[in-house]
Predict the structure.
Amino acid sequence: MEKKIAVIKGDGIGPEIVNEALKVIEAIAQKYKHTFEYQYIDMGGASIDKYGVPLTDEAITIAKASDAVLLGSIGGDTNTSPWYQLEPTLRPEAGLLKMRKELGLFANLRPAYLYDELKGACPLKEEITEGGFDMMIMRELTGGLYFGERETKEIDGQMVAHDNLVYSESEIRRIAKRSFDIAMKRRKKVTSVDKANVLDTSRLWRKIVNEVAVDYPEVELEHMLVDNAAMQLVKDPRQFDVILTENMFGDILSDEASMVTGSIGMLSSASLREDTLGMYEPSHGSAPDIAGQNIANPIATILSAAMMLRYSFDMDEEAKNIEDAIEKVLKAGYRTVDIMSEDKQQVTCSQMGDLIVENL
Ligand code: NAD
């Protein structure tokens, strides 16, 4: 199979971790006889330094013409970097928001998976994490409270602010369909999270999710109120497979879910639209404090590349091959500094990439 990948190395540790992900997918290409064509584009600080803007029209055109976008991370030290002296629309993050908008990426996927070997890093009690957990948070990314009309004004001598929470039937239907499709590739359970006891948007959300569920008789659907979901995530995370939710609830719950895994350098993410194009990136930032030292953990980016193979290229076996190789390397006791513990062998960012390739 031939696929075009737009690669954005980004800032800070971005180039180091993306290089390792490219090493791994090139090895996959050779093993399974695929051809991946890479087109390198700039975004964030690197683009500001070269072109004066965090994302150029040319970069957007290249991304749109590709089958998937692989991103490291963007941004610098927000206290010291000159990028943060610029007006907000010219800062690194503005490039990322623009890219998401231009590509129409409405579904954000964040897996939270507890590796047996990294249980020590999980802040939950052992009896709760026994047997591990493996869930996927599906967050609606382009609607809801963050995109509604907002205003702050003075009324009767005091300041009053409002933010509008709006969802249309079609916005709910497309993320629901995507979630059920993904559940079909996993353990076939969807937990739809809302606040239907209070909010009209949530009642519409529940109605549309129920309608979509009719087309997926194999998938078990349950509805859960967001306050209960926040509790259940720490009480019994094993019960979840796919969690489907709106933008703000997803923002909060996905951070909670990733915290319970305990290791930021291991968490991948994907942002998708209706067709197969997606953007794949680690959940963490550009870690300027450790940039250029070859000590960053590349696993979140390598797992994001595996998601790219699964969700944009429909290469399930290849993705599983990468995930299994990572598990083998961890089982063998190799760790980057962020997940290092006693009796384990510390390796660099590039050594971790090499070890994963060796175990494919
Ligand atoms: P961060 O995630 O970059 O770093 C937080 C801490 O985790 C740091 O101590 C860092 O060294 C460590 N860390 C992160 N990733 C690691 C890895 N792969 N291996 C080992 N250690 C790792 O968060 P921050 O410091 O708040 O933000 C730094 C910059 O990243 C900021 O400019 C921020 O805006 C940006 N950021 C970008 C994205 C993105 O590109 N999507 C996301 C979050 C933050």
